[in-house]
Amino acid sequence: MEKLLQLPTGPIPYTLKVSANRRTIGLRIDERGLTVHIPKCAAWSNVEKLLHEKSAWILSKLALRERAPAPMEWTDGAPLLHLGQDIRLCLHQDARNRMFEFDGATLYISQPNPNDTAAVQRKVTQWYRKQALADFTRRIELLAAKLGVTPTALFLSSAKTRWGSCNSKGEIRLHWRLIQAPPHIIHYVVAHELAHLKEMNHSPKFWAWVEKLCPNYSTARQELKVLSAQLHLV
Ligand SMILES: [Zn+2]
Question: Is 101 helix (H, G, I), strand (E, B) or coil?
Answer without folding.
Answer: strand
